[in-house]
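Why should sequence recovery work at all? Because a backbone constrains its sequence more than one might expect. Tight turns favour small or flexible residues, buried strands favour hydrophobic ones, and helices have their own preferences. The token representation captures these environments compactly. In the example below, the structure is given first.
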């Protein structure tokens, strides 16, 4: 985040350089950060400083902290003079680019070095340091609180707490604030507020009053509502209600001069202050009388404070009455997870399972993504009260909310069960909900659980346990336990279990001579078909141990398998040639001989036939071989995984998910290709691709599915589409940790995520990293992403053109979309350059052999008609397009209709709309209809707006080849609400809002429309 402060001037060069930092019109120092330059002669030391500072700035803007410190170290090594501007750049880089949750050791080290060098800090220096110290103190507060809750829950002490509290970030911030001297006057009000918010956590009234006094005296900043909310909260925590009321009085006298602000934060703070001072009546008076009287918006936050107060005093009945009041009164806010959480926690502490269970089932109807502590407490309460299956269901609820149990909780749940089947089910549930990182941390504890469970297991149960514990690996202790289960299994009956882990276990135990007996038992009694990858290893060990009988039986099994492998490869070759019917015929021949085909060849053949589009033939082959694999669960899994991929890649998610469920019921999980295919398939029907992507990603990781570049590309692309930047960057970093090389598609996807989320620094950093990557292959996609960013999100024509020039320099051919963006750069960013935008139509054809498309004409129409209100020119472009024999598409009609509606030509727009419906098959997108609703609303033609709105649907699945159905999106509801509000029909607007609330739209989207109605 860049501060609005300028750096203090110590000469014109510094002022000029700082201006270049904040300007959007500078040219980048090429896209990768160049290597440090050698210093010249002493008389050029100032220019060397300026050049080095510019390089640090470039590295900082690219988000490359290592490059910043490398350049900084190079300056010191070469004895290039360091200025206050140098230190400010380095400090700012550390503050903005450090990994969240890390101590401030390095930034403090740089500052101390600055002081030792006798370079006086500027106002900007203090601003950077105060901001990051306050932020770090809040991080520490949250982490310490979490560790204390975890310690109370598990009974295990936490050594990290003392180390965190010893960082002393607040004391250091206060020392800096006091030493800032006259620079305090340069601080914005937010710096004062950040200090006050941190101080409020500790109830530190003396330092808070000092900070407030400095703010009041500041010529450049004045207290705002956030200031008073922090002070009132602080005084309440300190137990001084009179001081809190005094600051509230200050607020009420000054609020009319503060401009637009949300007063509820101040009133909420006063409610909380009364409660902390044990004055419940005062809190209720503010909530139920004063806020209503003063016209302050009431949210669920103060009600939650009241609920916490009752629970802290053991009065859960009163707390539940508050919740019931919220549930029954439509005029009051809706309870959220923070409403139910304190009540659940209180019942857990009181060991009252029945009422806790009732509250829990209300809690999980809300967003529980931040309620881990409450869920964990309830799971432990269930165990303590012998409701083990309910505890397992809690873990499933956690998983659904993106949470995971810690190893201690997981262990306690699993070990609650005495029966092997129940314990195995619990273990499967907890492992499926845990990330690979958490499983690794708790592996020792979890393995002990498995070994205890296995002591009472039959061989089939033990084999199931081994399969369930795949995420834990296959350590020697587990192998030994499995062999012991076999040794004590005297039934001798056949089973459809996969015995391969038993062979693997015997091979892992060099001092255990049981392999021969195991081989004879499996081949004679259990109808075991050895997989190819075990042939040589088992045979070698049998020969070493001189188990002649077992060796002969194993060779016989291998011989029949060799014949089967040869014939199976013929099936695969036929599939490769595209001879799908021949492949099926050959597979039937294998079965008639009484042989079993190899699962690897059948897996690949099914996948190939499906990829060629022969879905029915792929399914026929699948049915054939599944009969042969009836007793081999591993082989069945392999071909089932393959048919899952076939259906998913063909978009048939009903069948794909059916096989997905079947695989899980077998105790297996899809492989990386199958998970990626499920993601791609779900894109054709999912309402929230990002949620699906993260769900499938988490499951794949939990079960140790080996990730691939393709797998990461698909997941990151889904996250980018939904503007989920943080998880996209996290996965990108994870790829590099696992040494999985990103390719151009990966970089394109993660840059797209940065661009969609508006993160210029990250986008430029990754773009530079991509260009300097050894494996870089020129592609147009990432360039288009950056150009689009500077055209649509942060309009800057010069920056956009720099990326086009870089494409030309690297001989990357511009695409049709690049030209569309170029036309937008000239026609939608003021000052408009319409002649150049027009020229792109001929240039794309002349220079890159690209035929102009309807979308290019739509760009020109939109600029003329909607931005410049020049209907005549827009119509001329429409006519020019028809003359060029380019058929108009939906985008062109939308641009033309927007032109007509925006310029009050509704009748002509209605005629064109009907013409469009005759000429093209319109999508279910509502954006054109939204334009009409807006236009009708502005003209007071509500009957037409209502008719159009009612003719639309909320169900995407209704549309068929014959019926024309437009599906309402959030923007449609917003347009209808605005139409009613234009005519002051508040009740009607609220009715539309109520309809919207019933849809499964994100809360933030609904809140935006709700704010229009409730203003």
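From this structural description, the recovered sequence reads:
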């Amino acid at each position: 985040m860049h501060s609005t402060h300028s750096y203090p001037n110590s000469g014109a060069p510094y002022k000029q350089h700082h201006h270049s930092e904040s300007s959007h019109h500078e040219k980048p120092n090429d896209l990768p950060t160049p290597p440090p330059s050698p210093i010249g002669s002493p008389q050029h030391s100032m220019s060397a400083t300026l050049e080095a500072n510019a390089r640090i700035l470039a590295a900082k803007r690219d988000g490359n902290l290592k490059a910043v410190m490398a350049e900084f170290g190079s300056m010191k090594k070469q004895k290039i003079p360091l200025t206050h501007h140098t230190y400010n750049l380095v400090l700012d880089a550390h503050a903005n680019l450090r990994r969240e949750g890390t101590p401030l050791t390095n930034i403090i080290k740089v500052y101390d070095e600055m002081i030792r060098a006798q370079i006086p800090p500027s106002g900007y220096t203090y601003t950077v340091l105060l901001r990051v110290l306050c932020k770090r103190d809040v991080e520490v507060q949250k982490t310490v609180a979490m560790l204390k809750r975890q310690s109370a829950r598990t009974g295990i002490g936490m050594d990290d707490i003392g180390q965190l509290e010893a960082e002393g970030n607040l004391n250091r911030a206060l020392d800096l604030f006091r030493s800032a001297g006259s620079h305090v006057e340069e601080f914005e009000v937010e710096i004062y507020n950040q200090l006050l918010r941190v101080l409020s956590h500790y109830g530190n009234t003396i330092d808070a009053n000092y900070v407030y006094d400095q703010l009041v005296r500041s010529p450049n900043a004045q207290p705002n509502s956030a200031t008073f909310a922090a002070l009132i909260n602080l005084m309440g925590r300190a137990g001084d209600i009179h001081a809190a009321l005094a600051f509230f009085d200050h607020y009420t006298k000054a609020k009319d001069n503060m401009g637009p602000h949300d007063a509820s934060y101040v009133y909420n703070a006063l409610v909380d202050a009364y409660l902390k001072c044990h004055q419940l009546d005062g809190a209720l008076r503010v909530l139920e009388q004063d806020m209503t009287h003063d016209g302050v918006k009431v949210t669920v936050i103060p009600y939650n404070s009241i609920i916490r107060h009752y629970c802290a005093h053991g009065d859960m009945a009163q707390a539940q009455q508050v919740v019931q009041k919220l549930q029954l009164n439509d005029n009051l806010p809706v309870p959220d997870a923070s409403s139910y959480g304190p009540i659940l926690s209180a019942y857990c502490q009181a060991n009252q399972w029945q009422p806790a269970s009732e509250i829990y089932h209300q809690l999980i109807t809300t967003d529980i993504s931040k309620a881990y502590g409450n869920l964990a407490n309830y799971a432990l309460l269930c165990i303590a009260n012998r409701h083990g299956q309910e505890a397992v269901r809690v873990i499933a609820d956690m998983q659904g909310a993106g949470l995971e149990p810690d190893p201690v909780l997981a262990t306690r749940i699993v070990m609650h069960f005495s029966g092997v089947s129940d314990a195995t089910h619990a273990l499967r549930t907890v492992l499926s909900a845990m990330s690979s990182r958490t499983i690794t941390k708790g592996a020792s504890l979890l393995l002990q659980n498995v070994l205890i469970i296995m002591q009472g297991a039959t061989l089939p149960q033990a084999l199931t346990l081994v399969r369930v514990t795949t995420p834990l690996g296959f350590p020697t202790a587990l192998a030994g336990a499995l062999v012991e289960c076999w040794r004590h299994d005297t039934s001798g009956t056949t089973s459809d279990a996969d015995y391969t882990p038993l062979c693997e276990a015997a091979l892992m135990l060099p001092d255990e001579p049981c392999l021969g007996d195991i081989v004879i038992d499996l081949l004679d009694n259990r109808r075991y078909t050895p997989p190819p990858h075990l042939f040589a290893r088992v045979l070698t060990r049998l020969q070493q141990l001189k188990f002649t009988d077992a060796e002969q039986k194993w060779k016989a099994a291998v011989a029949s398998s060799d014949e089967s492998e040869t014939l199976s490869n013929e099936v695969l070759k036929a599939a490769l040639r595209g001879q799908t019917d021949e492949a099926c015929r050959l597979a039937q021949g294998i079965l008639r001989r009484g042989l079993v085909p190899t699962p690897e060849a059948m897996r690949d053949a099914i996948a190939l036939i499906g990829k060629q589009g022969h879905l029915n033939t792929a399914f026929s082959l699948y049915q054939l071989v599944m009969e042969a694999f009836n007793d081999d669960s591993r082989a069945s899994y392999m071909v089932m995984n393959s048919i899952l991929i076939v259906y998913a890649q063909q978009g048939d998610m009903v069948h794909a998910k059916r096989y997905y469920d079947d695989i899980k019921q077998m105790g297996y999980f899809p492989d990386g290709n199958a998970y990626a295919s499920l993601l791609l398939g779900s894109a054709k029907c999912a309402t929230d691709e990002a949620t699906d992507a993260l769900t499938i990603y988490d499951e794949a990781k939990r079960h140790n599915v080996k990730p691939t570049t393709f797998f990461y590309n698909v997941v990151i692309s889904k996250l980018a589409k939904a503007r989920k930047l943080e998880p996209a960057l996290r996965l990108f970093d994870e790829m590099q940790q696992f040494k999985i090389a990103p390719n151009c598609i990966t970089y394109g996807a993660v840059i797209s995520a940065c661009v969609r989320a508006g993160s210029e620094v990250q986008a430029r950093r990754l773009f530079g990293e991509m260009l300097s990557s050894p494996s870089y292959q020129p592609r147009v996609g990432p360039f288009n992403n950056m150009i689009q960013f500077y055209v649509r999100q942060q309009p800057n024509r010069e920056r956009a053109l720099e990326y086009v020039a870089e494409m030309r320099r690297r001989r990357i051919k511009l695409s049709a979309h690049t030209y569309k963006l170029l036309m937008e750069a000239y026609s939608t960013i003021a000052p408009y350059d319409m002649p150049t935008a027009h020229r792109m139509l001929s240039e794309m054809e002349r220079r890159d052999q690209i035929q102009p498309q309807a979308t290019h004409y739509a760009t020109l129409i939109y600029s003329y008609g909607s931005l410049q209100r020049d209907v005549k020119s827009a119509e001329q472009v429409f006519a020019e397009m028809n003359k060029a024999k380019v058929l108009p598409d939906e985008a062109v009609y939308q641009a033309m209709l927007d032109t007509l509606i925006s310029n009050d030509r509704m009748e002509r727009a209605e005629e064109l709309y009907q013409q469009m419906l005759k000429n093209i098959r319109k999508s279910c997108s509502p954006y054109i209809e939204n334009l009409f609703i807006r236009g009708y609303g502005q003209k007071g033609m509500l009957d037409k707006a209502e008719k159009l709105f009612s003719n639309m649907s909320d169900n995407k699945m209704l549309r068929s080849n014959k019926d024309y159905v437009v599906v309402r999106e959030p923007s449609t509801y917003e347009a209808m609400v605005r139409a009613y509000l234009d005519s002051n029909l508040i009740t009607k607007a609220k009715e539309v809002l109520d309809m919207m609330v019933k849809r499964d739209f994100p809360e933030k989207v609904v809140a935006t429309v709700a704010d229009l109605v409730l203003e």
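A few observations help interpret the result. Residues 13 and 50 are 8 Å apart (CA to CA).
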